[in-house]
Amino acid sequence: MRELTYFVAMSLDGYIAGPNGEFDAFAVEGEHAAPIWERYRGTAPTQLAEAAGLTIDGCPFDTVLMGWNTYAVGLPALPNPYAHLKQIVFTREQSSPEGSEAVQFTNADPREVIRDLKAQPGKGIWLCGGGQLAARLRTDIDRLALKIQPVMFGAGVRLFGDTGYAPESWKLESMQSFASGVCLAEYSRA
């Protein structure tokens, strides 16, 4: 069965974006970038990867899931951000923008969609963002891959939105730290 991996950058205080969706405080360059890309190649928008000379071959995922706010970060310039992957955007209100024909927009229950995806053959499934979407899929996530950044936001979009108190155990699979202060922590469900 395919696995759902929540691979995302987060601040030391557990935010994946600021109050208005800001994420520019996260370090995207530095000595951590190449090893993380090697492990999770193909997790940059297609056009950006090509412009930077990064290969997307060998991506551990063939499908990417995101909420509307995560998707909208690239608009209007990138209406088809991950052209090399099957893209599913969960939204209740927004319509598909021009140029996004390859992107699937849905208001279906994310848990039903992920269960259907997991039953199909293929590579891994990447949840790339949306704290509220992650909260809805919390019990369906098999792996966490957290790029922990040496910054604190104080407010914003939490890793798992506003789920309330609900303890879950996870098993640390690997932890890689870099001189930049960034750490890649990988967990599987305990």
UniProtKB/TrEMBL annotation:
Database matches in Pfam families: RibD_C
InterPro entries given in the database record: DHFR-like_dom_sf, RibDG_C, Riboflavin_Biosynth_HTPR
Record domain Bacterial bifunctional deaminase-reductase C-terminal: where: 4-184
Gene3D superfamilies: Dihydrofolate Reductase, subunit A (3.40.430.10)
Superkingdom of this protein's organism: Bacteria
PANTHER family, per the entry: 2,5-DIAMINO-6-RIBOSYLAMINO-4(3H)-PYRIMIDINONE 5'-PHOSPHATE REDUCTASE, DIHYDROFOLATE REDUCTASE FAMILY PROTEIN (AFU_ORTHOLOGUE AFUA_8G06820)
Protein name: Dihydrofolate reductase
Organism lineage string: Bacteria, Bacillati, Actinomycetota, Actinomycetes, Micrococcales
